[in-house]
Amino acid sequence: MPSCARRAAIAGVSSAIALVSVTACGGGSTASTGSADKLQAAPAAQNLAGVCPKTVVVQVDWEPEAEHGPLYNLVGPGYTVDSDKKRITGPLVIGGKDTGVDIQIRAGGSAIGYQTVPSQMYVDKSITLGTVTTDVAITASAKQPVTAVAALMKKSPQVLMWDPATHPDWKTIADIGKSNAKVVYVNGSTYASLLVSKGLIKKSQLDGSYDGAPARFVSNPGIAQQGFATAEPYIYQHEVSAWKKPIRYQLLADVGYNVYPEALSVRSGELTSLSPCLKKLVPVLQQSAADFAAKPSATVKLIADLVQQYNTGWVYSEGTGTFAAKQMVKLGILGNEADGSVGSFDTKRVASALKTFTPLVEQSGAKVKAGLTAQDLATDEFIDPSIGLK
Q1: Within-domain flag for 24
Q2: Which residue(s) pair with 58 in the sheet?
Q3: Residues 124 and 111 in one domain
Q4: Closest CA relative to residue 131, chosen from 289, 16, 338, 280
Q5: Which of 108, 124, 141, 344 could form a disulfide with 61 if both were Cys (CB 3.0 to 4.6 A apart)?
């Protein structure tokens, strides 16, 4: 599901969250910080100069957040922030060393008119990689095909959440389905159709009017509501002044929403031409994921600062980011696959997702490419199996 729908949630929580600034904000639309002059060169295996674009452009699907931490972790000192275009550009570094090229990370959501990442990738061919969730890739397959080359997250952080005081008997999503409570979500979300098709939720329970604000849940705690394990548990307990208590939830990944969320993807037709770059770049991305998981604090501060500079109405505190980074590792949202590597794909799982979501996507009116295979959607060709979280 596109993050524009999934992440509307926190913008209305609080306008008074303090954010820690780690850059020097200059006048105009662009701010810069630090210097890249003293950076050591990365070893040859991580030197991307000559094989990758001079600037590796990554289009993400939403505003800066900790789920994108492995990407923002690659931005080295001497970066610039364009607060008008909502993008950051700087040396692409790994382990504090310069890989010889730059990275530019472009915000999604309002910055791209809430378009999907595949559509943006086909409008702007300067984009090297985009973050595309498996069901979105299936939806785009006929006209905007993309192939994932690294998994930014192992499983989706999306949840259905509820108030444990109102519903002490609810332990799982299936328990919600045994009631007549409304399930408030963003209309068009593929997972809702999945839950109905699996008999976990009744169609009559679905209420697609979720606007991202906490007001409805606070005023009517009898409902179930969509959320994210990486955000709402912290925000509702610490930042929603009218709530300030725990919530309960179950991950959608635990009940069949088996997508790879926001997988780093290229236009399928450019997979071959980008292969020399990807052979070096993907292991760097893997290492950055492992580094971020182990030590996220500096990157979380950068993310919180970018939110402040972009000033789109998206609210994301350093506290939320810190919680999210820990929660991702704790819940296995950011973690190793069965082979011990981070960023890799379980091909059987991709095939299962294709089988599960193709009919649901087609029911929504989208055309899925005839003969689409798991190999079209994701490849482990560039993964280094030795790189994983410790």
Answers
A1: yes
A2: 105, 129
A3: yes
A4: 289
A5: 108
Q: What pLDDT digit, counting tens, does each position of 109-153 carry?
A: 889 998 999 999 999 999 999 999 999 999 999 999 999 999 999
Q: Based on the domain organization, do 130 and 279 belong to the same domain?
A: yes
DSSP summary character for residue 357: H
CATH number, domain containing residue 346: 3.40.190.10
Q: Are 210 and 186 in contact (CB under 8 A)?
A: yes
Q: Quick one: 280 and 367 in the same domain?
A: yes
How many residues appear in the chain? Answer: 390
Whether the Cβ atoms of residue 22 and residue 33 lie closer than 8 Å to each other: yes
**Nearest-CA neighbor of 12 among 258, 309, 218?**
218
The structural domain count of the chain equals 2
Q: CA of 331: how far to CAs of 75, 157, 173, 254, 285, in Å?
A: 26, 9, 17, 11, 21
Same-domain pairing of 100 and 211: no
Separation of alpha carbons 332 and 93, rounded Å: 25
Q: Domain ends where: 218, 239, 255?
A: 255
Per-residue pLDDT of 152-205, as tens digits, reads 999 999 999 999 999 999 999 999 999 999 999 988 888 999 999 999 999 999
Look at residue 76 in the predicted model and tell me its pLDDT.
97
For residue 143, the Cα-to-chain-centroid distance in whole angstroms is 23
* 69, 327 Cβ separation under 8 angstroms: no
Asked which of 79-83, 119-123, 140-144, 363-367 is least confident by mean pLDDT, the reply is 363-367
Q: Are residues 63 and 138 in the same domain?
A: yes
Give the end of a domain, one of 255, 289, 310.
Answer: 255
Torsion, Cα of 338, 341, 342, 344 (10° steps): -70
